[in-house]
Design brief:
Layout lengths: L3 E9 L3 E3 L6 H14 L12 H7 L12 E2 L2 E2 L11 E7 L20 E8 L3 E8 L1 H8 L16 E8 L7 E2 L2 E2 L3 E2 L3 E4 L2 E5 L10 E5 L5 E3 L1
Antiparallel strand pairs: 1-7, 1-8, 2-6, 3-4, 5-6, 9-10, 11-14, 12-15, 13-14
């Protein structure tokens, strides 16, 4: 594979709902590869199943590395750049099953309704930077139909994904700013730090370290 610096732009059809300040591009790519490798078994797994268990115990092909350049134990792939004002959407979640005759409790128990809220950003584009194989990434991203949370109720629908080569590498650091969580042990200088998951799978607490925060100033060692 030949890796080149890339700018990935998703043109959005609907606003993006976020449960975290950003979306990680390497996590998005690996999510698709895991789904390809597991096939239907992907949907049978409980959430947060250790990757080691998936590879060793299930009868599935080995999950191959994503088509992304690696630096130390990080992929050269930024988090999402989303420029827009966040808003909060409030809604009620109610069961669509057939209700029994007689009275039911909708404030508690099995038929309980839920009052929920979502943070969303109405944007036309979501941008990522990465260094990778453009042809293989185009194939993978063709399977991504939506970004962010609450896609099942219409958020984050993608109109088009565009990959273009650029003459600068911006997947790790760009204009002296972190473009993804980078452990402070890999940094010579940093403006701000927080305990963050710095590599996929991002839900795994073993991947949490003190990191330079995305979009704050930093200098690599």
């Amino acid at each position: 594979m030949s890796y080149v610096p890339l700018k990935i732009t998703f043109r959005m059809e609907t606003p993006v709902a976020l449960g975290f300040p950003w979306i990680s591009f390497d996590g998005l790519v690996l999510h698709v590869l895991l789904r390809e490798s597991l096939g239907e078994k992907y949907y049978y797994l409980p959430t947060k199943t250790p990757i080691e268990y998936i590879i060793k115990k299930l009868d599935v092909p080995m999950i191959h590395d994503p088509p992304l350049k690696k630096w130390r134990d990080l992929y050269v792939a930024s988090v999402s750049i989303i420029n827009g004002q966040p808003f909060v959407f409030h809604y009620f979640k109610r069961g669509d099953f057939r209700f029994p005759s007689g009275k039911i409790r909708r404030g508690s128990g099995f038929f309980k309704d839920f009052y929920l809220k979502i943070t969303y950003v109405p944007v036309r584009e979501v941008v990522f930077y990465a260094t990778g194989d453009p042809r293989e990434l185009a194939r993978i991203l063709g399977k991504v139909k939506a970004l962010g949370k609450d896609r099942n109720i219409g958020f984050g629908f993608i109109k088009e994904a565009r990959i273009e080569e650029v003459d600068y590498e911006a997947g790790l650091v760009w204009n002296n700013k972190c473009m993804r969580p980078i452990p402070v042990e890999y940094l010579k200088e940093y403006e701000d730090a927080a305990y963050l998951a710095y590599r996929p799978p991002y839900w795994d607490k073993r991947n949490i370290k003190l990191c330079g925060v995305p979009f704050t100033k930093c200098v690599l060692k």
